[in-house]
Design goal:
This protein is an all-alpha fold. The protein is 70% helix and 0% strand.
Length: 504
């Protein structure tokens, strides 16, 4: 497929109208079809707030704020510095993602960029990494949401049992499925409201801790020296897990009004909001994470008589945030499957959309079964939720980092093929790809040697099997990847009908 520069319908119509004013010769429009390969989705249904909620929910900043700083501290490096450097790397990646989103509206997210820039096989491998990230983080979010709901019930004086995690996962599956199949508008609004409440709760608790903490200890933790480069690198690798998922707004490009403007703004805004929440919570916990023994902010809150009342609020915020993350991850994974199915790579049933809700119901059913079924099955057999969460997040982050590295490496090539070469992208893209590959390798090495080794092993096995599937498909059907990289373009209905009737 020879990619062309893509523009939205309004911009195309304005261009054609201007051309008619200066020329009496009609433009040839035979190339415009009646619909795109991504037709059937609820085109133009979402506004800026809904799209931003998708990325913020996928990041789950409130949930990340409760878990990631403690994991970074366990690596022995400076917590605040590691989180800040990881956030800086993510800002560079988001700049590259926005460059892609300004040009190509696609439901396939980052794998479409890799397919256009490098080639079909690269796009297919990137799609596998994205699915690993979306589904893995969704499973992690379901497990954590049920776990925090269990803690909230115990804090409220209710009798809670270990099997509540499995029951909670099943309940969240039913609620999520009912919301998602009703259409993207409802699921986006639910994610927006849920994540907004969670963010407000975490910000309030963080501000309270900062106001009641020791300023000198906070300053010492912020300016803590770096013990060695290895520990700092390990801390940065773990800290990257707090910011992954910000790019998931790109999967809603087809369903967004003015996607070439709205989606890049949503990616940038969601990362800034989520990063602010995570960094603020990191500062609030820095005092308790700077000693020889590290503890989460729950211990700091419980040690203060006034803070004990805020512990249930943190539990509620984490429960809501992780549930919104599960919704967003399922939404993103379902649209990646839809895009692959419409391109003829996966079974066509995965590309089906409901005529009424315009939701990819088959893809949603498959992703919901995976995201909620695995935590339910693991919890039902009595596995340790903490170990399960560590393994799930380890595999998911490996997928995210590989997908980001593929995007960074493909962006310069994609811009060259679109006729828009950029020197800045040629410098930052490969450099960012190398850094992300090194971070992914370091993170994989840290986790495969630790208690979460099963997640790293599963991620490696998944990528090998996905690559083998791609080779098998290409060998059986040489044209299997001929259409990969589909994106939403201008259709006949987007142009003035009278002009179309006059066109040759």
């Amino acid at each position: 497929m020879s990619p062309t520069l893509v523009c939205n319908a309004a911009e195309t119509g304005q261009f054609l109208y201007s051309a008619m004013l200066v020329s009496n010769e009609p433009l040839p429009l035979r190339g415009l079809g009646p619909r795109t390969r991504l037709g059937g989705l609820d085109s133009g249904a979402l506004g800026p707030a809904d799209v931003a909620a998708q990325s913020v929910s996928a990041m789950a900043p409130c949930g990340a704020a409760t878990a990631i700083p403690v994991l970074v501290a366990a690596q022995g490096g400076p917590v605040v510095a590691s989180m800040a450097i990881a956030f800086g790397i993510t800002l560079v990646v988001s700049w590259l993602v926005r460059g892609f989103a300004r040009r190509v509206p696609a439901a396939g997210s980052l794998y479409t960029c890799a397919a256009i820039g490098v080639g079909p096989m690269s796009g297919f491998i990137t799609a596998g990494a994205l699915l690993l990230g979306y589904l893995g983080i969704g499973m992690f979010a379901v497990t954590e949401s049920a776990s925090f709901a269990l803690r909230l019930a115990a804090a409220a004086g209710m009798a809670a049992h270990g099997w509540f995690v499995a029951v909670g996962a099943l309940g969240f599956a039913v609620a999520s499925g009912l919301v998602l199949v009703r259409g993207i508008r409802l699921s986006a609004r639910v994610s927006l409201v849920t994540e907004a409440v969670a963010v407000l709760l975490v910000v309030a608790v963080s501000v309270w801790l900062l106001c009641h903490g020791d300023g000198r200890l906070l300053q010492d933790s912020v300016l803590a020296p770096v013990p060695d480069v290895g520990r700092l690198a390990g801390g940065i690798a773990v800290a990257m897990t707090a910011f992954v998922g910000f790019e998931s707004a790109t999967v809603l490009s087809v369903e967004t009004r003015a996607p070439l403007r709205t989606v890049p703004a949503a990616v940038r805004g969601s990362l800034l909001v989520g990063g602010f929440v995570v960094l603020l919570a990191t500062l609030a916990q820095a005092e308790s994470l700077s000693g020889a023994t590290t503890s989460s902010w729950f211990a700091a809150l419980a040690a203060n008589p006034g803070g004990q009342m805020l512990v249930p609020a943190v539990y509620l915020a984490a429960t809501l945030s992780f549930f919104a993350c599960a919704l967003a991850s399922t939404t993103a994974a379902a649209r990646v499957l839809l895009s692959l199915a419409r391109e003829g790579v996966l079974p066509a049933a995965l590309g089906h959309t409901d005529l009424r809700s315009k939701a990819p119901t088959v893809g949603i059913a498959v992703c919901t079964a995976a995201v909620f079924g695995v935590p339910f099955a693991v919890s039902a057999v009595g596995a340790d939720p903490t170990a399960v969460c560590g393994s799930l997040v380890a595999g998911a982050v490996c997928g995210y980092l590989l997908a980001y590295a593929a995007l960074a490496g493909a962006m310069p090539l994609m811009l060259r093929r679109l006729g828009e070469p950029s020197r800045a992208v040629w410098v930052l893209g490969p450099a960012c790809a190398l850094v992300l590959t090194a971070v992914a390798a370091g993170f994989w090495g840290l986790t495969v040697a630790g208690p979460s080794w099963s997640g790293s092993a599963v991620s490696a096995a998944w990528m090998l099997l996905w690559a083998a599937l791609g080779c098998w498909l290409r060998g059986r059907r040489p044209d299997a990847f001929a259409s990969i990289g589909a994106h939403s373009g201008t259709v006949r209905s987007s142009v003035w009908r009278g002009y179309l009737r006059r066109s040759p």
